[in-house]
Amino acid sequence: MSDETTGTGRADSVQPVGIERKGLFGAKGTGDTSGFGGLVQAAPTAGEIVSTPAPLGGYFDEIVDALRELLGEEAVRAVVVDRGELTIYIAPDRTAEVCKAMRDDEGLRFELCDSVSGVDYPDQRNRLHVVYHLTSMTYRRRVRLETAVGLDHPVVQSVAEVYPTADWQEREAYDMFGVVFEGHPHLTRILMPDDWEGHPQRKDYPLGGISVEYKDGAHIPPPDERRAYK
Amino acid sequence: MTTTDHSSADAYAAERDTTEGRVYTVTGGDWDELVASVDPVSEERLIVNLGPQHPSTHGVLRLVCELEGETVRSVRPIVGYLHTGIEKNMEYRTWVQGTTFVTRADYLAPIFNETAYCLAVEKLLDVKVPRRADVIRVIMMELNRISSHLVALATTGMELGALSMMIYGFRDREKILDIFEAVCGLRMNMAYVRPGGVAQDLPANGVQMIRDFVEYMPKGLDDYEGLLTGNAIWQERTQGVGYLDVSGCLALGVTGPVLRSAGLAWDLRKTMPYCGYEEYDFEVPTHNGADAWARYLVRLEEIRESLKIISQGLDKLEPGPVMVEDKKIAWPAQLALGADGSGNSLNHIRHIMSQSMEALIHHFKLVTEGFRVPAGQVYTAIEAPRGELGIHAVSDGGTRPFRVHMREPSFVNLQSIPALAEGGLLADVIAGGASLDPVMGGCDR
């Protein structure tokens, strides 16, 4: 961890995935005479989340309004509509409350929690995101809830009480990203061995692998150390 | 009879003899105390590790069972033995290469993994695949659903001692794998469905092979029904075993045939159609048993429905491209089929090697660098043989997936094993687990 506060800690040996890009053609030193060598491109995933202005269209307004009415304005931090999908950003310490409202309210009725997954955005202050996909079988609707925590306090409220199916999926998010789900009945590793160190799907965790040696000493390095386009 | 004489009998007596045997009345929370004083075996709890290498656990699944005699008091499924880091690996490959990774997750339903992933990539790219590609995808998915259900029937049969069912199931699955081999050169892990369409068109004899299979399969199904449905042992082993009702399914996120066996006709092909499923005429079979027997019946009927869909798909096939027109995305899709799998597109090679240097450069960039996918995230879900297969794909605008998460039905459904099996007999753990049809490659990814 080189820099805990910016959350950009990353071993330099690891090939960058989804982080700030420097230069356009990958030339270092004097090779690039195009002038693009000094170009710095921020990753599109690095910035703040910008809400989509209302009206959102379709049933999206209905859901967001119902949620605001039930739990107050501050329950919804941001609302993004992209590619016909609704994402509601919520606070990490209110996930269970929001999910309970989403499940029980007559106008919402999201009976099924499809998926809980983690995403690591290394350029963001709160880099560990937890994403819930809910389905309303009654209304045939889908919604995505998203919350984010930083490495300094990676604690998200567990929704396993509301949706028992989240049990294993939260364990997976803990295993792979190190998100701690508060209130989970037995938060242990699930896919990796119990004594594994680190959280493999964080962006600063190397892919690993060994190079393959061919006849006459040719080496093919493992995928994360191969040359790649910028 | 004294039992009917309520006025004189003490309703709160601790025990009384009836024609049914001795009846104990418990009014408080002193269950354990009473059971301990009555049942001499209860102190003997035996911990049995079933698996991870066990022929009856559907792959490398470990079940830690706490037994009291033959009765299972608790089951703890332990997964992860087949974790291969597919999701992590994909972050280091291009979007097209991603199909070769997802296809290896649930190895009995590779076409579904590919299609779900490609639908996600296409949604991120905002491209629409040609109609012929959609129809081919549907045909291939339904063939794959049949082959997966056949393995489910075969392995369940094997695990419950019906070994002939295993032979028949795998025999008929082989016919589907032959079709797959003719279409894409490989029997499994085909990477046939690609972002933007499919890797290549059906071969000249493809349609005829599929028609022959559609004609053949109902006879096979009749055989299975003759073998199992009326079989008293099969009924005894499956009826009332592994019970999980609708509310249990929803709480535990269980979808697919298991949910439909509990009576809820939730099938994403009907409720949230994709790939043009709304154009096909088929039923969603359901049952009310919510047990292993009902799941067996649902799977059998789903095979018949899949055959209907395949026939309709073959009729819908019209000549046309099988890959999007956009050359910035599309890999050459008119491939020659070699003896060892899909080969090259000879016209394309001629074009890039001897006609156009720009085409060569474009081809090189497309294959080595890949195409860029606009930043954002999507979730697409399809009805896989085991339930909802969801792909949560995140792009940062680059040529590689930023994150791909597979919502695997095997992983989610396996959580319900304790609910299915606790309180039942040890033998029913196997029947209940088999009725979920988990595939560990998908579960552990």
TrEMBL record, chain A:
Its main location: membrane. It is an enzyme of class 7 (translocase). Its EC number is 7.1.1.-. It comes from the Bacteria. Residues 88-209 form the NADH:ubiquinone oxidoreductase 30kDa subunit domain. The keyword Transport applies. GO terms for cellular component: plasma membrane. SUPFAM superfamilies: Nqo5-like (SSF143243). Keywords: Cell membrane, Membrane, NAD, Oxidoreductase, Quinone, Translocase, Transport. NDH-1 shuttles electrons from NADH, via FMN and iron-sulfur (Fe-S) centers, to quinones in the respiratory chain. The immediate electron acceptor for the enzyme in this species is believed to be a menaquinone. Couples the redox reaction to proton translocation (for every two electrons transferred, four hydrogen ions are translocated across the cytoplasmic membrane), and thus conserves the redox energy in a proton gradient. NCBIfam families: NuoC_fam, PRK07785.1. Belongs to the complex I 30 kDa subunit family. This is NADH-quinone oxidoreductase subunit C. It comes from Glycomyces artemisiae. The lineage of its organism: Bacteria, Bacillati, Actinomycetota, Actinomycetes, Glycomycetales.
From TrEMBL, chain B:
The chain crosses the membrane at residues 150-170. Residues 160-445 form the NADH-quinone oxidoreductase subunit D domain. It catalyses: a quinone + NADH + 5 H(+)(in) = a quinol + NAD(+) + 4 H(+)(out). One of its GO terms (molecular function) is NAD binding. It comes from the Bacteria. It holds the Pfam family Complex1_49kDa. InterPro entries: NADH_Q_OxRdtase_suD, NADH_UbQ_OxRdtase_49kDa_CS, NDH1_su_D/H, NiFe-Hase_large. Keywords: Cell membrane, Membrane, NAD, Quinone, Translocase, Transmembrane, Transmembrane helix, Transport. It is a peripheral membrane protein. Its EC number is 7.1.1.-. GO terms for cellular component: plasma membrane. Its main location: membrane. It is an enzyme of class 7 (translocase). It is found in: Cell membrane. Gene3D superfamilies: Cytochrome-c3 Hydrogenase, chain B (1.10.645.10). PANTHER family: NADH DEHYDROGENASE [UBIQUINONE] IRON-SULFUR PROTEIN 2, MITOCHONDRIAL (PTHR11993:SF10), NADH-UBIQUINONE OXIDOREDUCTASE 49 KDA SUBUNIT (PTHR11993). Belongs to the complex I 49 kDa subunit family. NDH-1 is composed of 14 different subunits. Subunits NuoB, C, D, E, F, and G constitute the peripheral sector of the complex. NDH-1 shuttles electrons from NADH, via FMN and iron-sulfur (Fe-S) centers, to quinones in the respiratory chain. The immediate electron acceptor for the enzyme in this species is believed to be a menaquinone. Couples the redox reaction to proton translocation (for every two electrons transferred, four hydrogen ions are translocated across the cytoplasmic membrane), and thus conserves the redox energy in a proton gradient. This is NADH-quinone oxidoreductase subunit D. It comes from Glycomyces artemisiae.
